[in-house]
């Protein structure tokens, strides 16, 4: 009789996830395991079934990582198929108009809470997971340049009945400063995770981390606030790192503030500090790629 392992929602131990991740990195479970493994979502009627004799896919691991959100398939019925355009040109005139500033008291239950901004929020699952974990202590804002992803994310937010998260269709380079400067509470964290690499040299100017955005982040960030960057493309990670390392007068890498934080010999974080991986991060690690991470903290000025 086939046995099964059921990992329920937010009760999934991190160690169990990591163990499963290591197995999935081999693309299939060890051959001695003949049973089906059922990863059951708490509060959900569906499950992700992974069969021992079937090649695993990274979407299976994404589904496991975000099972606790219990996102339904209603999205396809309400909004139709959301075809994701992987690359857009942020320098196009169509993205040059600043995003309208929302009424923060309408999009957040308490607009005075500390704010995290995720630049390039993609599907939004990463931020939704964080928002669900911290419903009363933090607000979350996702900025995404692909309008269909924002529309779908906002649909999911309503489904989850979350009042501490909002998504805006925006070109962060154009809109970040104006949006964040009007927010009533402090900006505590900015994340830029696996941004579009724009590999061609002539397209490097399209990369999101440029000096004006870095300046806006530093100006807006509260003392002690943090910036988290990561990429599975070394060239992109190094490029972002140079931009933020150059602000050494205002920013310190986290291992300089907290020596207990572990880095490798080249200064990249050994572990993801967020408690949840982005979808791109999951896909990259599934393919055996290394993810390069840096976490900075804004200096606290003592009187």
Automatic annotation (TrEMBL):
Protein's UniProt keywords contain Methyltransferase: yes
Protein's UniProt name: tRNA (guanine(46)-N(7))-methyltransferase
EC numbers: 2.1.1.33
Keyword Transferase: yes
PROSITE patterns referenced in this protein's UniProt entry, alphabetically: SAM_MT_TRMB
Enzyme class: transferase
One Gene Ontology cellular component annotation held by this UniProt entry: tRNA methyltransferase complex
Keywords linked to the UniProt accession: Methyltransferase, S-adenosyl-L-methionine, Transferase, tRNA processing
Single GO term (MF): tRNA (guanine(46)-N7)-methyltransferase activity
Domain of life, per lineage: Eukaryota
N-terminal signal peptide: none
Entry-linked InterPro entries: SAM-dependent_MTases_sf, tRNA_(Gua-N-7)_MeTrfase_Trmb
């Amino acid at each position: 009789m086939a046995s099964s392992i059921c990992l329920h929602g937010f009760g999934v131990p991190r160690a169990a996830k990591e163990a499963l991740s290591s197995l999935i990195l081999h693309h299939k479970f060890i051959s001695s395991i003949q049973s089906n493994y059922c990863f059951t979502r708490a509060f959900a009627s569906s499950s992700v079934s992974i069969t021992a004799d079937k090649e695993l896919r990274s979407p299976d691991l994404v589904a496991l990582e975000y099972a606790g959100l219990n996102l339904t398939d209603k999205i396809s019925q309400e909004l139709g198929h959301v075809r994701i355009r992987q690359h857009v040109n942020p320098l196009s005139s169509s993205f040059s108009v600043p995003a309208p500033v929302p009424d923060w008291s309408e999009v957040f239950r308490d607009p005075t809470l500390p704010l995290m901004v995720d630049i390039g929020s993609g599907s939004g699952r990463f931020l939704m997971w964080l928002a669900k974990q911290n419903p009363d202590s933090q607000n979350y804002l996702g900025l995404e340049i692909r309008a269909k992803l924002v529309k779908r994310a906002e649909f999911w937010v309503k489904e989850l009945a979350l009042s501490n998260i909002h998504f805006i269709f925006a070109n962060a380079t154009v809109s970040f400063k104006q949006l964040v400067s009007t927010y009533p509470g402090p900006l505590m964290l900015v994340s830029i995770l696996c941004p579009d690499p724009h590999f061609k040299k002539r397209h490097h100017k399209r990369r999101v981390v440029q000096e004006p955005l870095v300046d806006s982040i530093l100006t807006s960030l509260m003392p002690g606030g943090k910036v988290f960057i990561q990429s599975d493309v070394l060239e992109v990670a190094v490029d972002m790192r140079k931009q933020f390392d150059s602000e050494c007068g205002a920013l310190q890498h986290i291992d300089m503030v907290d020596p207990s934080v572990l880095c490798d010999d080249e200064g990249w974080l050994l572990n993801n500090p967020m408690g949840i991986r982005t979808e791109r991060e999951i896909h990259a690690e599934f393919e055996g790629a290394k993810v390069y991470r840096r976490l900075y903290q804004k200096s606290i000025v003592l009187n």
